[in-house]
Amino acid sequence: MDWDKLRIFHAVADVGSLTHAGDKLNLSQSAVSRQIRGLEEQLNTNLFHRHARGLILTEQGELLFDATTAMTRRLDTAAARIRDSEEEVFGELRVTTTTGFGTLWLAPRLPKLYEKYPDLKVDLMLEERVLDLPMREADVAIRMKEPSQADLVRKKLMMIKMCLYATPAYLAEHGTPQRIEDMSNHRLICQNTNSDQVGAGVTLVQELMMHDVRSLLTVNNYFGVLQGVLNNLGIGVLPDYLTQDFPDLVQVLPDTESADVPVFLAYPEELRQSKRVSAFKDFVQDEIITYRKLLRDKENR
Question: Which of 23, 230, 232, 265 is deepest in the core (most CB within 10 A)?
Fold first, then answer.
């Protein structure tokens, strides 16, 4: 098949419009239309259903789009590996992690990475959905469980727990619970048990809810939970890695905590030699070492 036609087909299928694909490729709509028509004639099939609202892939079009998507990702990977043969760390690095960890732990530390590698461009994708690394939806992932996908390099970074925290101002006004039963006199702030989160966090919230909590605020990520706690709305279920950056938070009921949650860093095997990935991995590991040291120093005081 004609590579140029395939490239144009992929752009049209991606945006669902001849005009928008032409804008993306710097081609006229008529030129794009001719290439698509030529590809359909070559394959002797219709690749799109034409509608007033745009173009929709036919079943045959879906098959071809799957193939061109895989080809595009392989070409992106090859280009990345060629660029990574240079001595300098530069270019785009797509990092995916959860909204909570990305906003509360990773993003505040990124200035150190950019200070060392100013030409690096990090695309931080924060979502609970687990992206497919072998299919190159992202380059690196930091997740709260061991990845199950094959052909990944993975490293356990640390163990965290979900604990109960409140501000000194809230506790001064409402009192500090001494037993888990005392939570019935307080507002609990936590992730909704139906939202995507680690199982250990769900289990802890379910245990707390068994004690007739009188008031509840649920949020779909830990960043929102933290904002509720900082604004003295109640006692929140939060990951313990927050204590380094929010030292004024007071842990409530220290014996009430979740099971250990492992934090893993993973990336595709084919990026093992990538200098960008290595630079990011070393940065995260150094920050984890610093975090652990501060934690030990705090415990020894």
Answer: 265
